[in-house]
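hey so u asked for the seq, here:
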Amino acid sequence: MSVYKHDYRPFAGKVTPRWMRIYVLSRYGAAEAWSSKITVGLFVLSLLPLVIFLIGIYLANNPLARALIVKGSSGAIDIDAGYFLKMLEFQSWLALILTAWIAPRLISFDLADNALPILLSHPVSRFGYVLGKFLAMFMFLSIVTWIPCLLLFAYQAYSSPLPWFAAHLSIAAGLFSGAILWITVLSILGLALSSWVKWRVVATGAIFAAVFVPAGVGAIMSAILRTRWGFLLNLPMMMSVLWQRMLGAHPIFAEKYALPTPAILAMLLASCVCFVAMLNARIRAREVVRG
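ran it, structure tokens below
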């Protein structure tokens, strides 16, 4: 049948609320990420360290099992802020690996296939598009960071023979806030770099380079200039110091290398603003080609 013979009628069904439309992008983004067997493998591997920490909590609260399993030793295992700090660090760096693999799959494919003009021609704004992809990343990284960490915190509170929960509630707050901060930085970083690189493999390498190359440059600057301010380029060090202070654990680095918390937060904020500017410049409804 010819096109002009079709009768077109307006859609008479229920219209999805505008604030719900971003979840469509999140749902399809998550489905695209889960379609890869590598994603499933990385996700399973990222949960394996939690099993070790779970066993440690069990042994700490069960002297008989500890004496039988740990070669008859009855030494105590300290479940304190330092223990949960190690847990958070392990899971956070595994979250970086997941980000390097998942983030390019969320945006790079849309850019490579020139799908952005089609997506943004729908009733979805640029902010809604980025927010939908961000929520997909947030969901993935939450499952391997603050959610299991808080579950293990609850298990420790349940297993401890002492009134442990109320006295260590600040650890739970530190786990949650530290993980949320790290997830936010990782998600914006991954989406920003992926929006500028159409090739997924290159985008994955760029995410790792954006974290570790400035860290090396900052360490060199600090060594040459004999100052601690070069470590503001060292994202792993900044986050480790910040997590240690949020959880109330013992200092990780020497006092001469310690950075003020306001300086760390200001640097993270400036980095996020830069990444958002990169996204704003790249996510467009049309692409201008200069010949």
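The chain is about 70% helix and 0% strand. The CA atoms of residues 41 and 231 lie 34 Å apart.
lmk if thats what u needed
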